[in-house]
Amino acid sequence: MSEPLAPGSVIGILGGGQLGRMLSVAASRLGYICHIYEPSAAAPAGHVAEKLYTAPYEDEAALRAFAGGVDVITYEFENVPTSALDLLESLKPIRPNRRALAISQDRITEKTFLNGLGLTTAPWAEVNSEADLRAAVEKIGLPAILKTTRLGYDGKGQARLNTPDDIAAAWVAMAGAPAVLEGFVAFEREVSIIGGRGADGSVAAYDPGENVHREGILRTTTVPAKLSPAQRSDAVLLAAKILNALEYIGVMGVELFVTRAGLVVNEIAPRVHNSGHWTQAGCTVDQFEQHIRAVAGLPLGDGGRYADVVMENLIGEDVEQVPAILKERAAQLHLYGKGAWRPGRKMGHVNRIVKG
Amino acid sequence: MSEPLAPGSVIGILGGGQLGRMLSVAASRLGYICHIYEPSAAAPAGHVAEKLYTAPYEDEAALRAFAGGVDVITYEFENVPTSALDLLESLKPIRPNRRALAISQDRITEKTFLNGLGLTTAPWAEVNSEADLRAAVEKIGLPAILKTTRLGYDGKGQARLNTPDDIAAAWVAMAGAPAVLEGFVAFEREVSIIGGRGADGSVAAYDPGENVHREGILRTTTVPAKLSPAQRSDAVLLAAKILNALEYIGVMGVELFVTRAGLVVNEIAPRVHNSGHWTQAGCTVDQFEQHIRAVAGLPLGDGGRYADVVMENLIGEDVEQVPAILKERAAQLHLYGKGAWRPGRKMGHVNRIVKG
């Protein structure tokens, strides 16, 4: 792909959730058509796409049909199996590239990559046995958290260690999967930066947002974040460093801890990010259009912010607030078309313009 | 329909052009699904809708299938044949109602309705023969314009009369169709007001926009329009009067001439309107979402404007400016997915925020 994608071209999106849904809408604004590939039966993105493939990532025929109908492939979800990606990549370009995916799929690869760029992460150690874990606790200290290196591994995932007595149980909780022990970071606040890199190598970052999590789920993002000018520019430079090192094409979310000693990278997500939803209310070109622009080889849009915004996720029963939200002035509602709420399920979000 | 439409409900849209496309996107934000009915093969709205019916308005089986799959029906296009509407209305609610459609489908009915509300239109006279036309010219004076009472009648439509010598040819140009002679209005500027009325009877109007037409096609809308405070409130009151008189549910566009003697109503459109596209860049809730909110029985959104915007239509070869527009700061581009440009074809629009 050396030329920009012509209007009317088809963008394939792996994953049919709310991110795919908002990507498809953004693509339509630029005159593109989207096809969605999603293993689960319910695919909110399918409501606003020209075509929806409902098939597992192991279905080679479906993957071939999907690839055959599109001009470029992107994703809203980073845990696409390698075998599916290998096949798709042999048929059509994938943006962002495989390296970004590979790095974000494995916590150890990711931390190694970030440290290699001179960026600070939480202290960490690889853990492949209970003995490793004991050594890691010795090195990093407690409290700490043990995580499988790959996400979504059989639904198992994380175990917190407060005392050495927790070691045996934590290791059992990993069910034999490769893991990483991460030390706790004493942070002042959590922020994230949404950066994009175009096919021409240009980089544009949005103003960092300040995030509040509850029970491991993002609740609110507020812009502007409470950051000093130096912290703000550190965040932008750090995002640009990651994007350039990966020769990345698309939008990426970088979660950061703000500490007295500087910014610590928590995690990167090679896709549009929940903490960037505020850009729909505060920017001329939002993160979804920015991602599509990059993937299509168009110039990146201006990332400038023209409003102060608080984005609030509607999680589970929060969706029952919708009738009240619809009556609010200056509240921009986004529902994801997911049917009945379940605890922890992201049902929508609302962007409130607090200063226009 | 006494209850608001539940999320996940299906809205049927008659017409699959750019207005249907942007309505479908707005509906998705509120958690609804859209099905599109469009006779022509190319239907840009189908790119961002769950289902597209491609069938003529005379296809009773297709109309029944369409109605069977939706909870409420709306339209992006006012010239839907009466027979199709009769059938659809027997199956599902149509919003806005039939009366609004009937009025806007016939220039004489429309003018009679508007004058009956005490609103000023251009001077006009009914013309069903050459003799009628001579009498009408006598009464109204020249120059004047002769128009068939119904739009899109065999592609014939309008004839301008500058001198009495034009009478015979003008009547021939109507091909025997009922017509109306309209006197010219000496106007200072053209504006339009986009108003919405909810199922609860509440009314909300956007700030009037100032329109520039060329060759009968809207080129730009600028907000704010150059209007005095009195003219501005006259425009809002006039729109509210029309909406209330029709017990209208949805968004309507009202085109106005600004004259020394006050506002003159040029035309009403019982749907979202090209001159309201600026609301996508200048309001929390744009005209498309406002229409969907009304049709779904939700509370209307706040119509407040938080930016000065110039909307420019991209007509025909204007679309070749897209690469330059993509590089502009503060330009929000909307392409309609229509394929190759043709002279006079609306290909997209751009909203430029001139003061945020």
UniProtKB/TrEMBL annotation, chains A, B:
It catalyses: 5-amino-1-(5-phospho-beta-D-ribosyl)imidazole + hydrogencarbonate + ATP = 5-carboxyamino-1-(5-phospho-D-ribosyl)imidazole + ADP + phosphate + 2 H(+). NCBIfam families: PRK06019.1-2, PRK06019.1-5, purK. Keywords: ATP-binding, Ligase, Nucleotide-binding, Purine biosynthesis. Pathway: Purine metabolism; IMP biosynthesis via de novo pathway; 5-amino-1-(5-phospho-D-ribosyl)imidazole-4-carboxylate from 5-amino-1-(5-phospho-D-ribosyl)imidazole (N5-CAIR route): step 1/2. The keyword Ligase applies. HAMAP family: PurK. Residues 111-296 form the ATP-grasp domain. Its EC number is 6.3.4.18. It comes from the Bacteria. Belongs to the PurK/PurT family. This is N5-carboxyaminoimidazole ribonucleotide synthase. ATP binds at residues 107, 147, 152-158, 182-185, 190, 213, 266-267. GO terms for molecular function: 5-(carboxyamino)imidazole ribonucleotide synthase activity. The keyword Ribosomal protein does not apply. Gene3D superfamilies: 3.40.50.20, ATP-grasp fold, A domain, ATP-grasp fold, B domain. Homodimer. Catalyzes the ATP-dependent conversion of 5-aminoimidazole ribonucleotide (AIR) and HCO(3)(-) to N5-carboxyaminoimidazole ribonucleotide (N5-CAIR). Catalyzes the ATP-dependent conversion of 5-aminoimidazole ribonucleotide (AIR) and HCO(3)- to N5-carboxyaminoimidazole ribonucleotide (N5-CAIR). Pfam families: ATP-grasp, PurK_C, RS_preATP-grasp-like.
